[in-house]
Amino acid sequence: MSGPGRAPAVVVSALAVLMIGACLWLDLLNEPIDRDRATMGWGTISALVGAIAVATAVPVLWRYPRHLVAWVIALTGLLWAFDGLCESWSAYGMAQSPYPPLTGFAVWVVAQLGAFLLVGLPLVLVLYPTGRLMSGRWRVVSIVVIAMACTLPLLLLFAPTSALNAEEFQLPLDTGMPELPIPGDVFIGLLTVGRFLTLLSLPLAVVVLFARQRGASGRERMQLRWLLWAAVMCVVVSGVAIVLQNGWVVTIALMLALGLTGASIAIGILDPEVRDVDALMGGTVVWASVAGTVIALDLVLVAALDRLLGDRLDERDATLLLLLIAVTIYAPVRSRLTTVVHRLLVGRRGDRYSVVTDLAARLEESGDVRTQLPALAVAVATAFKLDYVRVEVFGHGGGTIAATHGRQPRDVREVPIRYGEEEVGRLELPARGVRSMLSKRDQALLVDIVRQAAMAVRSARLADDLQQSREQLVLAREDDRRRIRRDLHDGLGPVLGGVAMRLDAAGNALDRDPETTRRLVAQSRQDITDALADVRRLVHGLRPPALDDLGLLAALDQQAERMRSADLAVTVAAEDVPLLSAAVEVAAYRIASEALTNTARHARARHAAVRLTSSAGSLLVEVGDDGAGIDPEVVAGVGLRSIRERAEELGGRTEIVCPPTGGTRVRAWLPLTIDPEEHR
Question: Are 665 and 622 in contact (CB under 8 A)?
Fold first, then answer.
């Protein structure tokens, strides 16, 4: 960025430094009695507060010279510093006789113009983080908020002195500034209404901020979380100031709260990912809660000892007794209390090892997917103290198995459960709330939980698949046996029995009726021919004979020739195909044949290509076409399921995709680790 672009940041910084220097010089000149007479304090403190606000806005102005939020903070800080300068000048001027120039103006700034400091916070809330008002109806609400925030400052700007005095605020001198020609009693009512509207603008601005947060996503939501963290810190700092009730502590707390808020806004605008804000938020809430609980317990312990012992122990003995109690009894209790508070707020996410081991134990007790999923949902909900967790596992056939813990909120986010490259399921978690904010450490714990779940789900699915495969093998074997028995008993057996009877009859008629013998022998020959055809059909059902007669490549050429037509051209190619086992040969032939059949029936393609190649210990069977592809809404039919099942039976995998260029590509990887000699 060029030099002129950084000029606003330089000018704002210079003005703040100059006003702090002038305030400090005047405050050192003023005597305490002068400040008391003028009812003024140290202006340097106000100027320092303004300088803190300016310091948080300067980095944003340095990078974004036109960012409206930075300008609001910078101008508010300059007004604060100017108010402090006028406070110091008022005390100095009123100690002189006659009053030096601008003394009345300085008093007017402190008493009346300074009310515009109330406008800064609501204005920042409706503009952060983009520097623009929200659109739609919330834009109108934002404008109303700004108008309400300006009501009291505008009324005070030229308020009649009589109205101010009636409000129990006595101006130390006549400021000489113009006043509105309104009776004091009437103006008091206006001030009451203005005060109410200005105070109401702050909670209404918070409502606008929450509305922006509900519609935010990505970077903007992270920016808003930085402001939320600042709000939590302001509450903590304010609580400390209220408990201690010390003037200097309150002042320092105010400066600290202002600095933290400005710094959070600057970080949110410049680089919201510079720090894990979710971890910061969670740690702050836990620390504040634990600290508050421990401090309260400390006060109760001290009060109890003071009530029991009173003045019977001197200071030295009381100190030793407190140390003894703290070391022997109180320290373990406080440590346990810290753990309990931490778990009540954010669960067990801090005890990573315990969470993972408990989950592993639960999953070991549950051998079935349907019983593992509720255990996983409860484990995640307990570990992260979440009110809702849903676990869903995908089935091979397209169905799902799910388990839910708690009631589903309106906004959820999904976390995939992966085993290697395969997505086997997903987790649904709440998307909003402090507990849903996962730090990087929490995300690492969630990854460990998901990894454990993926392994368990994968193992359970493999066990189910193995059992189903065994059942299918038994059923297929028995079906084949029943079919072969039926074909032999009802088909081939009677035919061969009839042939034997005809041959016996032909032998008996050989001498006396040669013509009948010839007819019976011819009929027997035809029956034997038909029986041989049945035998070939049975053998073909067990294994395609073309594989044994021609080999895999020639058999595929033969199948491609059957599929060729005037509208479809089919090519077959092979590269470096080694000696294959019988099982791999059959699977490759069936997969390619099924893919070509689907292409001829459904794809309306002009060209199809079959390619065989081997690499990395597997045989790749690829069938591609230039047809219409597969509609995403179409449910996988028998053919596609058959392709997947044949590959998975051998431990292979399939991929069926429709490229952007059109057509369909079916790929199947079949392992070559099966010994060919064992299957021949």
Answer: yes
